[in-house]
Structure formats: structure tokens, C-alpha cells
Write a structure and sequence with these properties.
Number of helices: 5
Number of strands: 4
Strand content: 15-25%
Radius of gyration: 17 Å
Distance between the termini: 28 Å
Structural class: alpha+beta
Shape: globular
């Protein structure tokens, strides 16, 4: 597992190869297996394979989402704010769980932040996506994951890059 953590990198370029149904099903299972606070199961997921919708989702932010139009798959990660006040944490755990499973299946992925981002001057990214995907108001959009077969190679992380100086024992700075 630790080796997988060293290998996972944000991938923004994808081969134009559809993801096999079996792999999509594994990603869905991974999303549903992700833990949630007090077992609330507050996370909801929208799997998108339609190229027209992917292209529209790629315009959900002012910057940083355009590569989504070339991904064969996206998963919007939603949190039900009517169930729990820690939906951000629940959705974040689900998102990274999906990303690690994607990597284990030979797929690349990239987190596209939605919460607290703008579509344009008058509309948030979340509002744009809620309208596009017919998402109820109580479901909040944390992020979208772009997923596909990588068309770029990035080096594994190394111990030198980890920043061990960020770790303290038994109190900060120790």
C-alpha cells in the first residue's frame, strides 16, 4: 500500500480509451466502501461517461478543470449536508479512496476542487454543477475526479520530497 502512495500523482492527460465496465464497478464499490462519520453514509456519487456532459463539466471552474473534457470518466463527489455537518470530511475520504483504487487499477486521476470555487463572476462552480446534473440543494459538491488511462508519466515521490520536518512527536515542534 505504501508503494501505491508513492506512485499516485495527479494525472491531467488521458488516453482516449474507455474504462472497462468492471473497473468502473470497482471504483463505484470503492466509493461506497469509504468510511463516513458515525456511519452516516452522507456521500453521494454521480458517475459521468457522457462526452457532452464531461465537456460541460470541464467549464465548471474559471481555471483548472479544462482537462476534464478529455477524460473518459468523471465522478462527482457529493455530501448530504442535511445528514451531517462533516460532509466535507466524508466526501474527501471517499474521493481519495477512489483515487487510490483507480491507481491500483492502472488508471490516473485528478481531483478538481468545486467547493469554494467560481464558475464565473456571478455563479459558483457548485451552482453550475448542481444545475447541470440536477443535484438537489441539500447535496453539496466537494469535487469532481477526472479518471482515465494516463497519457503522461510522472515520477514517483521520494522520501526527500516528503518533508519529514513537518512531523512532531508528543507536541508541536518536538
Amino acid at each position: 500500500m505504501l508503494n501505491l502512495l508513492y506512485q499516485r500523482r495527479s494525472i491531467r492527460k488521458y488516453q482516449q480509451i474507455p474504462i472497462e465496465k468492471e473497473k468502473v464497478e470497482k471504483l463505484i464499490r470503492a466509493s461506497l466502501l469509504a468510511p463516513s462519520a458515525r456511519g452516516s453514509l452522507s456521500q453521494k456519487f454521480i458517475v459521468v461517461e457522457d462526452k457532452n456532459i464531461l465537456e460541460k463539466l470541464s467549464r465548471s471552474r474559471e481555471h483548472g478543470a479544462s482537462f476534464l473534457k478529455n477524460a473518459p470518466l468523471a465522478i462527482a463527489i457529493l455530501g448530504d449536508s442535511s445528514i451531517t455537518d462533516v460532509w466535507v470530511e466524508d466526501t474527501s475520504i471517499a474521493a481519495i479512496t477512489i483515487q487510490y483504487v483507480a491507481k491500483s487499477l492502472g488508471l490516473g486521476s485528478c481531483w478538481i476542487q468545486v467547493r469554494n470555487r467560481q464558475h464565473n463572476q456571478d455563479l459558483t462552480s457548485e451552482e453550475y454543477i448542481q444545475e447541470l446534473l440536477a443535484i438537489p440543494e441539500n447535496l453539496k459538491v466537494e469535487c469532481i475526479l477526472a479518471i482515465g488511462y494516463p497519457d503522461e508519466q510522472k515520477p514517483n515521490k521520494t522520501d526527500e520530497e516528503l518533508g519529514f520536518e513537518r512531523v512532531s512527536f508528543n507536541g508541536y515542534g518536538k
